[in-house]
From TrEMBL:
The keyword Manganese does not apply. Residues 169-488 form the Amidohydrolase-related domain. This is Amidohydrolase family protein. Keywords: Hydrolase. Coiled coil: none annotated. Residues 31-103 are annotated as: Disordered.
Length: 511
């Protein structure tokens, strides 16, 4: 029988449907719609005396906490609040969940279902479903399609359990490929982190993750953190964005961001720090090939910091741990060095020299041939840039690289001074200056970014089996990219959140 408890009113009517299969577990939240396979008040069916209760072992395939080591092709990642290889959305009790009638038998747990219906659904693969529906169960996507084709098991779910967004668009969650969670966006250089405690930096990181989530960003690549911050710190915030972390960036003594604790020079030091980063849970290795603008001293953005042999050793050490390498490089000499060493991504890539700029077309061709991606770190005020890197010059550089076939991905460098973490969507319209259409930019910020970061097996598109990372925005972002700045629903690994409130969808169902 079914019972419906009281729940807090919400404009989206986001009451999750919970199929309660076993009376050994109570419903997780009061106010949930609960289905039971037996009548209320009746005794549970007796088990045969000789029947043994089987328990499934945890693991990468059965919901255990064992992150898959994807080696060179797929990255190890941590989904907030969920195991990496959980197949529960595709499998319930050993049978296909979509082929069963409600309630879906699962003797071990409760299954939470969210059905989101919108005027249009952008799958991230160039497909537009009008109107469209997305079904989330147990933190993953299990069905995406036209609303009129919703399978009977999901069509039978009560209307009160659905999230109806008749004027909105659902699309994959946004991906920012270059952030600094521990910097906070305050007008102070990263060296100021030397005067902060671990707890203070952790608080800054958690505030940044909340900002990112509210802005509809469901995955970030954090390219540089202090020596005492590791993957456990990033995992503390439940229902936050997925974080691909580089932990401590490698630099030289007195070099760019040396205050984060990653100064190395000897081969043994390089090997030790790369190994330590891998142990801390790094998904990427970050190396400061050139100096930067936020660090003084011997840090020059125009010149390489490492010798060719040192940089080659860093790449070799990263390969030994199955990790790709992201190279911070402003100066043309550093970009040439990074390409020669075989890095996997170049951050900034501004082609600067002490006297101006020197875009090397031969190096650009080599970037294309080696399939190195470039994250130009375009933030929301890029068009207003003057001085050392005026937008007119930068725009021409990016057009040359784009025309040559360089793979560009969006990232904002958020966390540096005057660049808050919630401005990503405001930076995306700037990409139209490079010839991208709105549809191209949406794909660039979702599916293309996921592929470039080697997590397209997890996220980036609305695909059955992928993690439940999505956003809903008012109107149609295909005609107005500004819609991306005001998401009304954000799902990170299936956790629903409303940016205009401080509660999750599950909490909104409580009396």
């Amino acid at each position: 029988m079914a019972r419906l408890g009281t729940h807090a009113a919400h404009p989206c009517h986001a009451l999750p449907w919970r199929a309660r299969i076993s009376d050994r577990e109570p419903a997780r939240a009061s106010g949930a719609l609960v289905f039971s396979p037996r009548r209320a008040g009746s005794a549970p069916p007796a088990r045969p005396a000789d029947r043994r209760r089987r328990r499934r072992r945890g693991g990468a395939d059965n919901g255990g906490d064992h992150p898959q080591s994807g080696g060179w092709g797929k990255l190890r990642t941590r989904e907030p609040g969920a195991a990496f290889g959980d197949r529960r959305t595709r499998n319930a009790g050993g049978r296909n969940i979509l082929r069963q009638r409600p309630p879906y038998p699962d003797p071990a747990r409760i299954v939470t279902v969210h059905i989101l219906e919108a005027a249009r659904v952008l799958t991230g693969r160039g497909q537009v479903l009008t109107p469209g529906t997305v079904v989330l169960t147990d933190r993953r996507i299990v069905w995406v399609g036209l609303s009129r084709q919703l399978p009977k098991p999901w069509a039978a779910v009560p209307a009160t359990a659905r999230i109806r967004l008749p004027e909105a668009t659902i699309l994959p969650g946004l991906i920012d490929a270059h952030v600094h969670l521990s910097f906070g966006g305050a007008p102070r250089p990263p060296v100021a982190l030397l005067a902060t405690t671990r707890m203070e930096v952790a608080a800054t990181i958690h505030a940044a993750l909340r900002q990112l989530r509210d802005a509809g960003i469901t995955t970030v690549r954090d390219l540089g953190a202090p020596r005492y911050i590791d993957s456990s710190t990033l995992a503390d915030l439940d229902a936050g964005p997925r974080v691909l972390t580089a932990t401590i960036p490698l630099t030289v003594a007195g070099g760019h961001c040396a205050g984060l604790g990653g100064a190395v020079s000897e081969t043994a030091e390089i090997d030790q720090l790369v190994a330590a980063n891998a142990t801390r849970g790094a998904d990427w290795i970050k190396v400061m090939v050139t100096g930067g603008f936020t660090t003084g001293g011997r840090s020059s953005p125009y010149e390489p910091q490492f010798t060719d042999d040192q940089l080659a050793r860093i790449v070799t050490a990263a390969r030994a741990h199955g990790l790709p390498v992201a190279a911070h490089a402003h100066g043309s000499a550093g970009i040439r060095q990074a390409v020669g060493a075989g890095v996997d991504s170049i951050e900034h890539c501004t082609w600067m020299t002490p006297d101006g700029f020197d875009l090397d077309h031969g190096v650009v061709r080599e970037i294309v041939n080696r399939r190195i991606m470039v994250c130009p770190t375009i933030n929301h005020h890029a068009r207003d840039a003057t001085g050392r890197l005026p937008w007119a010059v930068r725009r021409e550089q990016l057009r040359v690289m784009l025309d040559a076939g360089v793979r560009l991905i969006p990232g904002t460098d958020s966390g540096i001074p005057q660049t808050p973490h919630d401005q990503y969507a405001y930076s995306l319209p700037i990409w139209t200056d490079l010839g991208y259409s709105a549809a191209d930019i949406i794909e660039l910020a979702t599916a293309a970014a996921a592929q470039a970061l080697r997590i397209d097996h997890l996220t980036g598109t609305l695909t059955a089996g992928h993690v439940g990372d999505l956003i809903a925005v008012p109107g149609d972002p295909m005609t107005d990219l500004g819609a991306l700045t005001t998401p009304v629903v954000v799902a990170t690994a299936g956790h629903l959140h409303y940016p205009d409130t401080t509660t999750t969808a599950e909490e909104n169902t409580r009396p």
